[in-house]
UniProtKB/TrEMBL annotation:
Cofactor: heme b
Biological source species: Thiocapsa marina 5811
Protein name, per record: Bacterioferritin
GO cellular component: cytosol
EC number of the protein: 1.16.3.1
Alphabetical UniProt keywords: Heme, Iron, Iron storage, Metal-binding
Entry binding sites for Fe cation 3: E53
Residues given in the record as Fe cation 2 binding sites: E54, E97, E130, H133
Pfam families: Ferritin (PF00210)
Catalytic activity: 4 Fe(2+) + O2 + 4 H(+) = 4 Fe(3+) + 2 H2O; Fe(2+)(in) = Fe(2+)(out)
Binding positions (heme b): M55
Amino acid sequence: MRHARIHPRTLGYLGRALSLELSAVQQYMTQASLAEAWGLPEAAVRLREETVEEMQHAERIIQRMLVLGVAPNGSHLRPAGVARNLVDLLRQDAVLEAEIVALYREAVIFCRRIGDRENGDFFEALLNEESAHAREIEDWLASLGIRRYREPDERAYF
């Protein structure tokens, strides 16, 4: 394990990222079970695939933290989003993914600003993957006839 000097704010980004990724794992896993209970096997399979993808992100963050010599700590696990239909589940997923993308974007900008290329590259790779994932959710919603989701305050998540 390498004990590198790392900016405390970068450690904060890693901790928040781990919490969000583990929250996404819990959310997608719960939603896959709901979709299956609703008789939507294709949606259940797709949500289980999302679960695995988010687990891989969490694992990469844990590995990164260990390389940096810090103990992984996902300290804030959010409750899983549940709803009465697939569209509402996907809307919740869009909100969570938008938050994850925003966190990674902020982390990349910060790391670049302080000259931390290694962690900036790490966050950028996650940003690219999560941005693609957010677009996949947008496409899924579009396939269900939902073009764009907006929160009551009118912030666009796509």
